[in-house]
Amino acid sequence: MLPKISVITPSFNQGSFIEQTISSVLKQDYPNLEYIVIDGGSTDETVSVIKRYSSRIAYWVSESDRGQTHAINKGLSRATGDIIAYINSDDYYLPGALEKVARYWVEHPDCDLVHGQCEIVDHVGALVRLQQGDIRSLEQCLDLWGVWWGGRNFVQPEVFWTRRMTEKIGPFREDLHWVMDYDYWARIFAVGGRAGFIDDRLAAFRLHPLQKSTQPERTANELLSVVRPYLFSKSTPIGRKEQIRLRAEWMYHAEFLPRVRESIACNEPPARRRAKLAGYALSHPSVLLAGPFRTRLTASVKPLFSNTVLGGKL
């Protein structure tokens, strides 16, 4: 009596990769699978590939949509599984992944999100590195600096979640283009979702030049926009001390550093730049709690102090 698993694949013009994706899902030979493919009206060989497997796909469509997130939500609205996941049309599952997830949930029915290890591969499938996430709480999920960007992040294709969570938090945010998956995991933790880890390889995430994740600056900016409401709300269910620390990190990276870059780009004199940045720090004293800010401040003040001593003025 293994639980029903719904897998959604959003696709658009990934004809060179999608057959491996589809095959990796179907070759799981999982007995209680609902596979849904939502194509955005591809003009390459994608549709012909989907048609070859159509008899084993619960539902598929190829029509214009509003992008990847809209495609995922279209599939989500049709998913009836106890466990849900989506895998993009350039990634793939490793053998036995679905059964490992199902058996873990049978043994841990209180888990709402489960993940494993993920292989990061190049465009031909050669292993680049192995990623193992380590996030168990909303506090850790919101810590972009020490956790998410510190190598403890989830990689999307190795994450599965329960239908009860989707019923509680709703669909993915279609206004997000880069980090709708991160936002979803944060929302699961925000409503008390529990995470579980499978110490095994479940999926492969492919690196290639055309994928969206090759644009780190846009991804980082969208991540900062997602975490902001959590860090500045009194109702966020995390410790007050941790919230203040993370808020300081956000202020440093989302507001202070852009001011530094803008000043440099405008060729402002160093003295004027320091005065403006000091003004920001005085009006936003919380930024002083950010470790990088203190490091930067120490590095800028130390030479001045040394020069004063050497010049015999102190």
How many structural domains can be distinguished in the coordinates?
Answer: 2
Secondary structure: number of strands: 9
**CATH topology-level name of the largest domain:** Spore Coat Polysaccharide Biosynthesis Protein SpsA, Chain A
Low-confidence stretches: 302-314
* Rg calc: 23 Å
Largest sheet: 9 strands, mixed
**SSE order in H/E notation?**
EHEHEHEEHEEHHEHHEHHHH
Q: CATH class of the largest domain, anyone? A: Alpha Beta
How does the helix and strand content classify structurally? alpha/beta
The residue-averaged pLDDT reads 91
CATH architecture annotation name of the largest domain = Alpha-Beta Complex
Through-space gap between termini: 79 Å
- The CATH homologous superfamily of the largest domain is termed Spore Coat Polysaccharide Biosynthesis Protein SpsA, Chain A
Proportion of helical residues = 40-55%
DSSP helical segment count = 12
Question: What is the general shape?
Answer: globular
Strand content: 15-25%
